[in-house]
Amino acid sequence: MSNLPIFDVAGSAMQAQSVRLSTIASNLANANTVAGTAEGAYRAKQPVFSADPIAGNPALAGVQVTEVRDSTAAPVKRYEPGHPLADAQGYVYAPDVDPVAQMVDMISASRSYQANVDVFKSAKDLAVATLNMGR
Amino acid sequence: MEGRMSDFLGIHGAALILREQRLQVLSTNLANADTPGFQAQDLDFNSALQAALSPATGAGGSDPYQAAAAGARHARPSSQPSLDGNTVDSAREQATFSQAALEYRASMTFIESKVRTMLTAITGE
């Protein structure tokens, strides 16, 4: 019984989706983090997925997070002269994080995670049933 | 001995192996539902089984089932193309996977009942 590659495939996908969930959590947590300079502002993070051949078999691909990239969107410049972090002109810099888009991304990630948990469960059930054959 | 055992199991031994190969291909699709540019694949079970059972494929090569599965694998176009070039349709993929899992169980049930019959013949109980 070699149902084991399915565990590798589904497991790698679950890990990739959980990295995605972590970056979304980080983005949402820092949605209101302001900085005194444009360079110091938080930048939204996004993982980059790629297909990763399992056990040297090109037909059997898991998921790999190749890198976590920072968003290139410019920080939002807000005029808040009273803010303790404001620069000489009275501006603070907030990250360009759209909470709605992040929530949508989060739902998509958790759905994908769940789908792979289901695959994992089915593969496990089938493997156990095959092992118990004839008992 | 091995030859006799697979003769005894008939078509179901080969079917079980190929059904598992198909489950692997489908699990790859679901895993890569969010990978940009990933092309969904499927395995044509009928042609894989035919290839595995034909003597031409069975004679040469290290693993006739692997060869048969590789020959029957094909890209499956999506009904809803996405912007990043990914052709996996998650909902359809989940449905196909469930169906394939059920088919695997069906093949397994056939083998199991054959084994039980043989056990009854051996033990006489």
Question: Care to describe what's here?
Answer:
The complex is a heterodimer of chains A (135) and B (125). Chain A is of the alpha+beta class and 135 residues long. In chain A, 44% of the residues lie in helices and 24% in strands. Chain A contains two helices and four strands. In chain A, helix 1 packs antiparallel against helix 2 (99-131). The longest helix of chain A has 33 residues, at 99-131. The radius of gyration of chain A is 21 Å and the shape is elongated. The two termini of chain A are 16 Å apart. With 125 residues, chain B is mainly alpha-helical. Chain B is 69% helix and 5% strand. Chain B has helices at 2-9, 11-31, 45-53, 55-59, 64-72, 90-123; strands at 41-43, 73-75. Chain B has a two-stranded antiparallel ribbon with strand order 1-2. In chain B, helix 3 (45-53) runs antiparallel to helix 5. Classes of the chains: A alpha+beta (135), B mainly alpha (125). At the A-B interface, helix 1, strand 1, strand 2 and helix 2 of A face helix 2 and helix 6 of B.
Q: What labels would you give this structure?
A:
heterodimer, A: 135 residues, alpha+beta, two-stranded antiparallel ribbon, two-stranded antiparallel sheet, B: 125 residues, mainly alpha, 69% helix
